[in-house]
Amino acid sequence: MKIFTNAVVTLNFKLFDADGELIEQSATPVTYLHGGYSGIFPKAEDALNFKEAGDTVKLSLEPSEAFGDHDPALVRLEPLARLPPDTVVGGYLSSGDDDEPVWRVTEISEGKAVLDGNHELAGQRVLFECTVLDVRAATEEEIEHGHPHGAHGCCH
């Protein structure tokens, strides 16, 4: 079966930085609903149109096509005294507010912490590679919910 709108696609992927260094790969297959449901990068979704199990896709994604451009407005300096006592470089902070980004602690110095709300790969070109493992038609319920369901149905 070929990939088309409202198909459930299962694939393995690898993500590389611009120098070809592996950043991330799927430990288990990833399944998404094809057709603009935000389950995968739009450019990758376009490249997957009409592919089928066994096909591979390799493409370069500019920052705007992947994790976005780096936004300096999402970087701020906070007094360490205002943050949780276990705050460390590489850690994450969240206010719990859905409108607020998750902040990554990138530096701590002189009683202050640099917090970055950008995705770690924002501003970077990445290389996306995937192999299609399976394609099937989505159920009406999956289309209505906008995502694929597991073997035991919907869980929300």
Beta-strand percent range: 35-45%
Total count of strands: 9
N-to-C span: 28 Å
Please outline the major beta sheet: 5 strands, antiparallel
What is the CATH architecture descriptor of the largest domain? Answer: Roll
Bulk shape: elongated
Order of helices and strands: EEEHEEEEEEH
Uncertain residue segments: none
Mean pLDDT: 93
Fraction of helical residues = under 10%
> What is the name of the CATH class of the largest domain?
Alpha Beta
CATH topology of the largest domain: Chitinase A, domain 3
Coarse structural class: mainly beta
Structural domains: how many: 2
Radius of gyration: 19 Å
Instruction: Please count the helical segments.
Output: 2
Describe the model.
- It is a single chain.
- The chain has two helices and nine strands.
- The two termini are 28 Å apart.
- It folds into two domains: 7-67 and 122-145, Roll (Chitinase A, domain 3); 72-116, Thrombin, subunit H.
- The model has no long low-confidence stretch (mean pLDDT 93).
- Strands 1, 2, 3, 4 and 9 form a five-stranded antiparallel beta sheet that branches. Strands 5-8-7-6 form a four-stranded antiparallel beta sheet, with no helix packed on it.
- It has helices at 42-48, 140-145, and strands at 7-17, 22-25, 30-33, 56-61, 75-79, 92-93, 103-109, 112-116, 126-137.
- The relative contact order is 0.27.
- A hairpin with a 4-residue loop joins strand 1 (7-17) and strand 2.
- It is elongated and about 60 Å long.
- It is mainly beta.
- It is 8% helix and 36% strand.
